[in-house]
Design brief:
Elements: E1 3-8, H1 14-17, E2 31-32, E3 35-39, E4 45-48, E5 56-62, E6 65-73, H2 77-87, E7 100-108, E8 111-115, E9 125-129, E10 132-136, H3 139-146, H4 152-160, H5 165-168, E11 178-179, E12 184-189, E13 192-197, H6 213-233, H7 251-257, E14 262-268, H8 273-284, E15 303-310, H9 317-326, E16 332-339, H10 364-371, E17 375-379, H11 384-388, H12 394-400, H13 408-418, H14 423-435, H15 439-451, H16 460-468, H17 483-500, H18 507-529, E18 536-538, H19 544-551, H20 555-558, H21 563-574, H22 592-602, H23 604-610, H24 615-618, H25 624-635, H26 642-660, E19 666-667
Parallel strand pairs: 14-15, 14-17, 15-16, 17-18
Antiparallel strand pairs: 1-4, 1-10, 2-19, 3-4, 5-6, 6-7, 7-8, 8-12, 9-10, 9-11, 12-13
Helix pairs in contact: 4-17, 6-19, 6-21, 8-21, 12-14, 12-18, 13-14, 15-17, 22-25
Length: 691
């Protein structure tokens, strides 16, 4: 796990707290454990964790103006200096416009600007501390610093309405630690904080002219190619040396058994369009990898393409066949990782503590098995669906903009899938209602649904699309929460509705951004839970410039059936890749539900033990017997929302790991100075005010 942390102190208190030499308890120096100081007094900044040398860059314009960039950034030192000069006047957006995935911190005198990203994969957190403000790119270090307790209201909202920003707000699982929203920057002036948005806000009154489809797709291609090229241009890193042979094992098996990635560049190759696009781009761009034997510098290096073959659950044979055809490219070295019962969801309930909870915790062992065969720098296609696909609520956006004719194709596709002639009228009616419903009314409807425990489960593709044509809907785990927890979230939503007015976004755009933020947050959890030493995961689809280019795609293009595959096919054609296997980009009819159900069936007994005395029950969020009954029913094959059970189980696992940890992220504090110092005290309702 890697993060940066610093603070901005008041001018009066600068000499006492705001430096790398601040004195903590017992005369010790207060600083993060395992850190490297980037700059000191009076507003220090540290980088913590196993950062590579090229991932941490500090550029000075003069003694009072400097910038720190952590991560993969394609800007040169001269561009960073120009960025400092521009940022002196308060401009921020240009700091987020360089290719790559990074966090930028600019210091101009006593003003500090910390830029978050657009997707939420690189969040920024802050908390009041010692008369000023501490900030970090991880929430747990700040929670340790202030000895924060759990925020039970946030945990309840995380289960009841995980896709609703008004329910989650800017809170975190730690009481007092706040998160800046995606697309915003944290600006600190001598300890005082301000949250500033750096993206232009679209008007509801006047629709922006639609971008020309060809140019919009070209912009996506250019952004994606530049994102991949930036990572290929970074220095190569070789993992720790192989300590020696093992009888009966080859080099690849030794590395996998010892948790070491293969040197070089690699990528997932699942057979889907997103991972295939990145693998072919990375292998085909000039330079390394992908150079054929005997051609140029570094010749012979091939991109390691990793395909996961699930032997426990069938249904992805067509995708595996397409992956094999793609891997026939001489620039690729194909590695197939097989997994049986030991890689099913829930097969491994032990693991590292992550910064925040997320449903990926129950899948960590499954992903770790695949990533262990990957490379030191490994591309993944995560985020492509969220940035390219059209959320069903975008149909209402078309009606808001009076572009009804563009509803014909998506509605016709749903009608063919359902086989009913009534589908067009039902979908059009739902989209029309949403287009005429204010945001405030949408939050009120959700609050009432939670209070009255109305959790109707949609059936089929048409049912799911109709259910998604709302401003907000309950999460899949909401049905198992206690009445007190649901009432707390309901009251919270009503208060947010009173403050929100009519809203400032189109419903489809609002829902799409919320879905992207949730996916990015869960990917961050996955990276920490399935981390392989010396390996870096790269998700170019979540880079700022790629997200911006995808947002400029016209709605009429985005809502067409198969739009994501068509856009990525055009991207590959523009990069010189024209031969793709038949069926490439076809939607997969196999579902992860089969693997989740098989994993629940295999892990039923350990899960029963986990929920014998759950911490979630001590927190007043669930009743243990209700969850045990749901686990037994799902393992027996009953139709239940399996993603809701994943949310519950992963949150219980995270709470147990958090309370079982020892030590703290800081020196200079007592050994007990850590987050949730007193644990969870059993009580009837942890959600009542003052509890």
């Amino acid at each position: 796990m890697r993060w940066l942390v610093g603070w901005s102190s008041t001018a009066a208190g600068a000499a006492g707290i705001g430096s790398a030499g601040a004195v903590g308890y017992d005369g010790e120096t207060l600083h993060p454990v395992g850190s490297q100081l980037l700059w000191g007094d009076p507003d220090p900044l540290w980088a913590v964790g196993d950062w590579r040398p090229d991932e941490v860059r500090v550029v000075h314009a003069d003694a009072q103006h400097r910038i720190a960039v952590l991560g993969i950034c394609g800007a040169s030192d001269e561009e960073l200096r120009r960025g400092i000069v521009t940022a002196r006047g308060g401009a921020v957006r240009h700091l987020t416009s360089w290719p790559g995935s990074y966090t930028a911190v600019v210091q101009a005198g006593r003003r500090i600007t910390v830029c978050g990203d657009l997707a939420g994969a690189r969040p920024v957190f802050h908390t009041p501390w010692s008369g000023g403000t501490a900030y970090a790119t991880a929430a747990l270090p700040l929670a340790d610093l202030i000895e924060a307790n759990l925020d039970f209201t946030h945990l309840a909202a995380l289960l009841a309405a995980p896709d609703v920003p008004a329910a989650l707000r800017d809170t975190t699982p730690y009481d007092g630690v706040r998160r800046i929203p995606p697309g915003h920057a944290l600006v600190l002036r001598a300890g005082a904080r301000e949250i500033a948005g750096y993206e232009p806000v679209a008007s509801l009154a006047v629709a922006a002219p639609p971008a020309e489809p060809g140019r919009a797709v070209d912009a996506v291609r250019d952004a994606l190619v530049e994102a991949v090229r930036t990572r290929l241009s970074a220095p190569r890193h070789v993992p720790d040396l192989d300590p020696g042979p093992v009888p009966g094992m080859g080099p690849a098996e030794r590395r996998a058994a010892r948790g070491m990635p293969v040197p070089g560049i690699g990528a997932d190759l699942s057979g889907g369009p997103a991972s295939g696009t990145l693998a072919l781009l990375a292998a085909g761009l000039p330079g390394r990898p992908g150079t054929l034997l005997g051609h140029g510098t570094g010749a012979g290096e091939r991109l390691v393409a990793v395909t996961f073959n699930d032997l426990a659950v069938a249904g992805r044979e067509a995708e595996l066949e397409r992956a094999g055809e793609l891997a026939a490219n001489p620039r690729l070295h194909h590695v197939v990782v097989t997994g049986a019962e030991e890689t099913l969801p829930y097969a491994e309930l032990d693991g590292p503590l992550t910064d925040e909870p997320g449903p990926s915790l129950v899948l960590a062992a499954r992903h770790r098995a695949r990533l262990a065969a990957g490379s030191a720098d490994h591309f993944t296609g995560h985020g492509a669906r969220q940035v390219l696909d059209a959320h069903p609520a975008r149909l209402a956006d078309l009606l808001v903009d009076r572009r009804r004719r563009h509803l014909v194709r998506p509605v016709a596709a749903l009608a063919r899938a359902d086989g009913s002639v009534m589908v067009p009228a039902r979908v059009y009616g739902a989209a029309r209602r949403l287009a005429r419903t204010p945001y405030r009314a949408g939050l009120d409807v959700l609050a009432e649904r939670l209070m009255r425990r109305r959790f109707e489960e949609p059936k089929g593709a048409v049912g799911a699309s109709l259910a998604a044509l709302t401003w907000a809907r309950p999460g899949p785990a909401a049905r198992w929460l206690t009445g007190e927890a649901l009432a707390e979230v309901s009251v919270l939503l009503q208060a947010e509705a009173d403050r929100s007015g009519t809203g400032a976004q189109r419903p489809g755009e609002h829902r799409a951004r919320a879905a992207l933020a949730r996916h990015a947050a869960d990917l961050r959890v996955l990276e920490q839970a399935a981390e392989i030493r010396s390996q870096r995961l790269h998700a170019p689809f979540l880079d700022n410039q790629v997200v911006r280019a995808c947002r400029d795609l016209p709605e009429a293009l985005r809502v067409r059936p198969g739009a994501r595959a068509a856009v990525l096919r055009t991207v590959l054609e523009g990069a010189g890749v024209t031969e793709l296997p038949p069926g490439w980009g076809a939607p997969s009819h196999a579902s992860s539900a089969a693997a989740a159900r098989a994993g629940l069936r295999m892990a039923a007994d350990p899960l029963m033990d986990l929920f014998a005395t759950p911490l979630l029950a001590d927190a007043g969020l669930v009743e243990a017997r209700v969850v045990r009954k749901a686990v037994r029913a799902a393992a027996a094959g009953e139709s239940l929302p399996l993603d809701g059970l994943a949310d519950l189980i992963s949150l219980e696992l995270w709470l147990r790991r958090l309370l079982a940890r020892r030590g703290t992220c800081w020196t200079g504090t007592p050994t007990r100075s850590r987050a949730v110092p007193s644990g969870i005290q059993p009580r009837r309702s942890a959600l009542t005010p003052g509890a």
